[in-house]
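Q: What would this chain look like folded?
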Amino acid sequence: MKTKAVRIYGKNDLRLEEFELPAMKDDEILAKIISDSLCMSSHKAAIQGADHKRVPNNVAENPVIIGHEFCGEIIEVGAKWQDQFKAGEKFAIQPALFYKGSLDAPGYSYNYIGGDATYIIIPNEVMECGCLLRYNSDTYFYGSLAEPMSCIIGAFHASYHTKSGSYVHQMEIINGGNMAILAGAGPMGLGAIDYAINREIKPAMIVVTDIDNARLARAAEILSVEKAASKGVKLYYVNTNNFENPIKYLMDLTDGKGFDDVFVFAPVRPVVEMADKLLGRDGCLNFFAGPTNTAFSAEFNFYNVHYASTHVVGTSGGNTDDMIESIEMMEKGLIDPAAMITHIGGLNTVVDTTINLPSIPGGKKLIYTNKNMPLVAIADFAERGKTDPFYAELDKIVKANNNLWCKKAEDFIFANAKEI
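A: My prediction, written as C-alpha cells:
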C-alpha cells in the first residue's frame, strides 16, 4: 500500500513524499491516520535533525515520519494482536514508549509510523508497551489532543508536597489550595485551567496571568469565572502589566500566604522568577514550558528552599496512564480542549508549518492528513469566506460554537475538503 507522509532527512529538511509501505507483519497493525496536531517538539526535531535525542543518526539515508499527536482508524490487524484489536476501531497513541529503555518514539524515530501520514504500519513494540489506545469517540480531533492534554495531566500528577517533619513526597497538587498559572492564557494554559476546575482534586483558587488583554479576554470567555465558581473554584484572570507591583497584588489574593502550586507556561526568566516569589510554604513550582535554549536559567531563592521547603518540578510529556485519563475525561465530556486549536490545514502544509511553527501565532495547528488544504486560522475563516464558500460555511459552523473547532466542522472537512 502507498502512503503519503512528511519525513525528516536532516536539519530543516522535511519532505512530503509518496512511497510504498512494506508488507505488514503478523505482529504489526496497518492503520489510517485521520488527524494530527502539530507540536513544538516536532519543530525541535526538525531543526535539530540527527542531533535530536530521538531522531536516528542515519536519518539522511533512513528518513522517519514526523508527528506524534495523532488519531486514526485501524485497517488491518496482524495475527498476534487479533484478539485485542479489530479493523474499524479508532485509536490514539502514546508516543513515549520507552521500549526496553529506548527513547525511540513514533513521530521521531520510525520509518513507517508517525502522525503526518495517510497510512502507517504500527510496530509490535507499540502494542507490547500498551501504547495503542482505544478511542471511543466519533470526533477525531479530540484524539489528537489527547497527547498534549496528557502532558498537562502528567504535570499535575508530578507536583508534590510534604508535611512538616516528614520526608515523604505526597504526589499531586494541594486539594483546596491556591494555584497560579503564569503565562497561562495560551492553548496549553487553557487546557490546564479546564483540567484544574473539572477534576476531583482541585484548588480552591486559581489565578491565571498573562500580558495580553485579548488572550485573557478570550480565555475568560471560554472558561469563565462563573463556570469555575460552579465547580467550587474561585478564578481570576490578571494582566500583570497593569500593576506596578504585580507580585504584591497576587500575594494579596492569598492573604499573604502565597501559592501552593505555581505552573510556568512560558520559558521566560522573569516569569520563572515571579513564580519563585509567589510560592508559599512547601510551594511547588512546576516548570511546564520546555525551552529551546539549553542554557536557560533563572534565579531561585534558596533561602526559601531551606527554610520554607519550596521546590521545583518539571515534566516532559505524560505517561500512558495520563493519556488514558485524558481520553476518558474527553469521552465523558468533562473537559473540552477544543480551545487549544487555532489553525486548520491539510498534509500539504506540514513541512512549512513545522519548520516555521514558532513564528506562527496562535495555538494548536490541526492537520487533516488525508486532505489538501491551506493552513488557515479559525479567526480568518470569515475573511476567507468572502471569496470562498467553503470557508464561509466553516465560519458559520464555528461561530455557532463560540468560535471553537467542533465535530460539525470536522465532518464538513471530511465531506468537502480536497483529498491529498
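The longest strand covers residues 29-38.
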